[in-house]
């Protein structure tokens, strides 16, 4: 006979949250060729030792591509101490396939919010040749 149980306490294991992190730098080609696949490099500053890369927010709307970094932020608990980091630049990549035969792609890389709470972006246009 085997017995098992599950906790109904939702607070257990909920010791992290997600945070969108501004993109610092991006390396894009000067142009795209139809049908080709490209590796896009980008960087962001890791704010603390409790921040870890989770995913890339990537939204497609027509010619626009909106991109942001999503970090998992672990809460301090049971021996985990979060230390602030300065100048901890992390480089990551994603792949992009040019599916157009002409035109332009407009990339919007999220760079945080201004003093009015409005989102700001590094906007880069890449023509398709």
Quick synopsis:
The protein is an all-beta fold.
How would you describe this protein?
The protein has 129 residues and is mainly β. Helix content is 0%, strand content 56%. It is built from no helices and eight strands. Strands 1, 4, 5, 7 and 8 form a five-stranded mixed beta sheet that branches. It has a three-stranded antiparallel beta sheet with strand order 2-3-6, with no helix packed on it. A hairpin with a 2-residue loop joins strand 4 and strand 5. The radius of gyration is 19 Å and the shape is elongated.
Keywords:
129 residues, mainly beta, five-stranded mixed beta sheet, three-stranded antiparallel beta sheet, 8 strands, 56% strand, elongated, disordered N terminus
What is the strand and helix layout of this fold?
Elements: E1 16-21, E2 23-27, E3 37-45, E4 51-61, E5 64-74, E6 89-97, E7 103-113, E8 119-128
Parallel strand pairs: 5-7
Antiparallel strand pairs: 1-5, 2-3, 3-6, 4-5, 7-8
General shape: elongated
Biggest sheet layout: 5 strands, mixed
Low-pLDDT stretches are 1-12
- Ends apart, CA distance between termini: 68 Å
Q: Helix content range of the residues, please?
A: under 10%
